[in-house]
Amino acid sequence: MQSWSAPNVPSLPGRGPALRLYDSADHQVRPVSPGETATMYVCGITPYDATHLGHAATYLAFDLVHRLWLDAGHRVHYVQNVTDIDDPLFERADRDGIDWRVLGDREPELFRTDMAALRVLPPHDYVAATEAIDEVVELVEKMLASGAAYVVDGEYPDVYYRADATLQFGYESGYDRDTMLALFGERGGDPDRPGKSDPLDALMWRAARPGEPSWPSPFGPGRPGWHVECSAIALSRIGTGLDIQGGGSDLIFPHHEFSAAHAECVTGERRFARHYVHAGMIGWDGHKMSKSRGNLVLVSGLRADGVEPAAIRLGLLAGHYRADRSWSAAVLEEAQARLARWRQASALAAGPDASDAVARVRQYLADDLDTPKALAALDGWATDTLEYGGHDGDAPRTVATAVDALLGVDL
């Protein structure tokens, strides 16, 4: 699948500090230690609606990771999927009276446009689930052969993964069984499916149903389950030893738990990823922003209203990426005012020395993406510049370059 165009990322003198991130499995902030090439897999959209600010906040968080790795001197192999074959997509297509393929093409294009406008660095591999059917089939075959998966008897011989196929299952989320079962039912699982060995067993291959698209396989025609799609794409594009598996916090269970378990089952690794990183939820009017609630603030809608993408970006970065937080008119107004101040300061002929401010921004961002502190450091420099001026003719351009390289905001 086609990605979007990459913005230019300027280089800063020297190298940024090593990145430290909170690991959802270990419940602590610890160093991320990639090799020369850092690897990251972030779950992409299910394209049945437009990009909302919850999506944007997640992808901005991992855009910061991408930028900080570049600043630290790493190459980055970033992979993202598009779940262009799933029940919500079919339900929305049926509701709107259009072919699911039309929806699966239209919404990713809008997503790409939104990501380009927000200056999010594109993934190296941008892969639709329908482009990875062969990889999924191969993975399911291996699990059936090893006994980690089984076929449910009946009219529709679906293939399920055994939740107990790896001894470490559950380590990523840390949830107890009751919590897992509750979330499994709420987030796309089917705990009450007759014939399963365990209510927690996850669908890997859905046997063909009338009116649904399907692909051939040695275990019968059908289509991929949700979790195995990401396992197959990550393993085929990156391989083992993944540095970061990322996404929104609502993916911790069941999606990331199972996609990691699928990969671990076939590779024999104890951990699919060295770091599990999750972004908080964005709310509006006291509730999580979601399609099911219909309380979405769309990136495309804000852009159509004339809101500059740089202000959207700064508004979302004003809160810590792991925090559940709310969007509001006040958040946007503050972001617009901040952007105006920074631009005014960076447009002056000279300012106070910027080396300390840039060093602090680098350090704050490397410490678990602490954007509130990074933005405050830049606010301080802008205030000093506007109120007291300075004699360093390079300072305004130095700050503008750092803001562009590290925060993705063009001043």
Question: Can you describe what's shown?
Answer:
The structure is a single chain. This protein is an alpha/beta fold and 411 residues long. The protein is 43% helix and 15% strand. The chain is built from 13 helices and 14 strands. It has helices spanning 53-71, 87-96, 100-117, 133-146, 177-186, 226-237, 252-267, 299-304, 309-317, 329-346, 355-366, 371-388, 395-407; strands at 20-23, 28-31, 37-42, 75-82, 125-128, 149-151, 159-161, 202-207, 222-224, 242-248, 273-279, 282-284, 287-288, 325-326. It has a five-stranded parallel sheet with strand order 5-4-3-10-11, sandwiched between helices. A four-stranded antiparallel sheet has the order 6-7-8-9. A three-stranded mixed sheet has the order 13-12-14, covered by helices on one side. α9 (309-317) packs across α10 (329-346) and α10 (329-346) packs across α12 (371-388). The longest helix has 19 residues, at 53-71. The chain is elongated and about 80 Å long. The two termini are 31 Å apart. 47% of the residues are buried.
**What composes the largest sheet?**
5 strands, parallel
Helix coverage percent: 40-55%
DSSP summary: helix tally:
13
State the separation between the terminal residues, measured CA to CA. 31 Å
Could you say which structural class the secondary elements and strand pairing correspond to? alpha/beta
- Form type: elongated
- Rg result: 22 Å
